[in-house]
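> forwarded from #structure-qc
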């Protein structure tokens, strides 16, 4: 044990259970937990509006968790290296520890910080706090990175790794005197214009809420997860993604809790194994981001660089605002704006619509999601957009163009989701609700819908748009 404190630099690991940097620091002696707000260091992917909202509440929760153990969270704003150096001086700390992140610019920054601090005689250590398998530990027989999910996940499942979560804390020793902390409010993470009101009904932020959500999901949803995860109208999935992104819960905790839930219950294996394989897609996304860092901006499949994209701002804005005239697309986009979330199936439908029906570059969609999703995550978002656009790893073949009508009738079979978010169509039923442009005039009149007035007429005709997309693809197919 040392009497000099260790700084634990919290980042996307906002929990005190299974937090390897905190565990290692506490084993050395007193701990100074720190969070530094330096968004410009993550440019061009500084946290978006919805992420900032989540971060504010997650930091508030972490403060409470640490205080319940007799510790504090020191908040600071400013350049990370200079702030850490300043804190080392103020607290006489002789070590700094953190959990690793995998975004290209963050890796670069962290390497520099590690070198600079180590050169000045500070002990620096980083840990794996957010993945089951770090990207460089999984490779093909030819020692290459994987670009196809199934063999990647098989390899992960066979790999030797410690999936046991680390401990939690009741007491954390602190320094004799605590350094000053910037008030959370002063970080300015909450929006000035209050678009976030519905977020408060939708979300409970922080590690205790994440654990509760996991337990409830395992108890109530795991059995039918494989089928229900695709539904847009019911919550058949875990909604753990923002908690995972901010590290309020670790994949090790999820792994262990899911295994325990399945233990001795054969009927849960189908859902449980599938759920864990989705956590595997998250691992795969991080693997790809680490090995192909340019893919946040450029397609993995290079020929897509020459794709004849449209530059129409009008089309992009109609999509962003949920005004495309396709009810399932509009419902999902409006729901995203209001709640900060969208079900995976709906993400695929709206992303296919933007990139294939409207021919807008996937990067535009990725940017909008980045700002509006509470779970915006550079690895998962990049993979999701490139996969749907057909230009990424293990991507959907380009000719797989989602038909918004059949997707809606299959995954929102009663139309409840559409009615919730597109109330102007709520009196329509069946196919008229999915395709109001095909409804006869009497039906529309009785439902109080004047197309192009109460609700937009469709921006494009899906079958014509589909043909145009396939023709555009022919141009680059080679
Ligand atoms: C266009 C597009 C953009 C996306 N952007 C993001 C994003 O910014 N952040 C994000 O976390 N996910 C993103 N995804 C993946 C996926 O839609 C979400 O992770 C999932 O919907 C979150 O809901 P859940 O927590 O209920 O998932 P569950 O079905 O309960 O799955 C459990 C966990 O597994 C992971 N996961 C599930 N599906 C995927 C997937 N396809 N790819 C990677 N990880 C997955 C998530 O961490 C999720 O929390 C995107 C998908 C698409 C098609």
């Amino acid at each position: 044990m040392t009497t000099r404190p260790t700084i634990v630099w919290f980042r996307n690991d906002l929990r005190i259970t299974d937090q390897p940097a905190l565990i290692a620091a506490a084993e050395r002696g007193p701990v100074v937990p720190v969070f530094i707000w330096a968004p410009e260091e993550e440019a061009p992917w500084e946290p978006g509006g919805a992420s900032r909202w989540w971060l504010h509440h997650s930091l508030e929760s972490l403060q409470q968790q640490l205080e319940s153990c007799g510790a504090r969270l020191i908040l600071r704003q400013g350049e990370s290296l200079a702030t850490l150096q300043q804190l080392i001086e103020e607290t006489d700390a002789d070590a700094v520890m953190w959990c690793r992140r995998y975004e290209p610019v963050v890796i670069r920054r962290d390497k520099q910080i590690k070198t600079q601090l180590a050169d000045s005689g500070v002990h620096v250590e980083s840990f794996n706090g957010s993945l089951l398998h770090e990207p460089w530990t999984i490779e093909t027989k030819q020692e290459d990175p994987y670009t196809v999910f199934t063999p990647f996940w098989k390899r992960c499942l066979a790999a030797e790794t410690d999936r046991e979560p680390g401990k939690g804390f009741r007491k954390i020793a602190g320094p004799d005197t605590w350094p000053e902390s910037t008030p959370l409010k002063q970080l300015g993470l909450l929006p000035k214009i209050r678009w976030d009101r519905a977020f408060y009904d939708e979300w409970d932020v922080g590690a205790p809420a994440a654990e509760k959500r996991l337990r409830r999901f395992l108890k109530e949803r795991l059995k039918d997860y494989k089928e229900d995860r695709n539904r847009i109208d019911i919550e058949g999935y875990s909604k753990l993604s923002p908690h995972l992104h901010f590290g309020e819960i670790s994949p090790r905790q999820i792994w262990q809790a899911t295994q325990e839930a399945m233990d001795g219950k054969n009927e849960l294996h189908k859902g449980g194994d599938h759920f864990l394989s989705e956590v595997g897609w998250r691992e795969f996304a991080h693997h790809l981001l680490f090995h192909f860092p340019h893919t946040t901006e450029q397609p993995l499949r290079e020929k897509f660089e020459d794709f004849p994209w449209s530059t129409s701002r009008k089309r992009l804005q109609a999509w962003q605002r949920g005004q495309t005239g396709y009810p399932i697309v509009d419902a999902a986009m409006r729901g995203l704006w209001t709640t900060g979330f969208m079900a995976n199936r709906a993400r695929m439908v709206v992303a296919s619509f933007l990139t294939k029906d409207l021919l807008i570059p996937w990067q535009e969609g990725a940017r909008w999601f980045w700002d509006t999703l509470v779970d915006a995550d550079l690895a998962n978002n990049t993979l999701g957009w490139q996969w749907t656009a057909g230009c990424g790893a293990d991507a959907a073949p380009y000719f797989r163009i989602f038909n918004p009508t059949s997707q809606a009738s299959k995954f929102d079979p009663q139309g409840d989701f559409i009615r919730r978010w597109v109330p102007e169509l709520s009196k329509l039923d069946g196919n008229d609700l999915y395709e109001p442009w095909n409804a006869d005039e009497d039906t529309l009149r009785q439902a109080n819908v004047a197309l192009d007035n109460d609700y937009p007429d469709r921006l494009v005709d899906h079958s014509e748009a589909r043909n145009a997309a396939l023709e555009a693809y022919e141009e680059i197919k080679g």
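QC bot note: Residues 6-129 form a domain with the Rossmann fold fold (CATH 3.40.50.620). The two ends are 64 Å apart (CA to CA).
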